[in-house]
């Protein structure tokens, strides 16, 4: 289990800034693992990277501007309806090391509060 610190809160206009405390990632077993995090909060961008670059990247689909709609948990390679796939998914490989990077998005669409964790298949 790894920790990821992200800034967040809630705006009066309904914009969800995202996770407001350190996020702890849990990655399940297998090559299409379930990816979960706590506390139960939302992200704007989620990226899985490997030695050869980005394996899978999701961004919350804008409704009326930037938002953070990626809720826990999700399965690798199965994007939630609230997201746009920006890269991948490429197959995970047994024995390889991977990283998770996550961001929340501010009202201007800027990714903030980046953090990361790692896991091995």
Word description of this protein:
- With 121 residues, the chain is mostly beta strands.
- It contains no helices and 11 strands.
- The strands form 3 sheets. The chain has a 5-stranded antiparallel beta sheet with strand order 9-7-6-10-11, with no helix packed on it.
The average pLDDT score comes to 81
Based on secondary structure, the structural category is mainly beta
Write down the Rg.
Answer: 14 Å
Query: How many helices in DSSP terms?
Result: 0
Biggest beta sheet summary: 5 strands, antiparallel
Extract low-pLDDT stretches: 1-15
| Quaternary form | single chain
H/E element sequence: EEEEEEEEEEE
Q: What fraction strand?
A: over 45%
Strand order of the largest sheet: 9-7-6-10-11
Q: Strand tally, please?
A: 11
Task: Measure the end-to-end span.
Answer: 14 Å
Portion of residues within helices: under 10%
Shape descriptor? globular
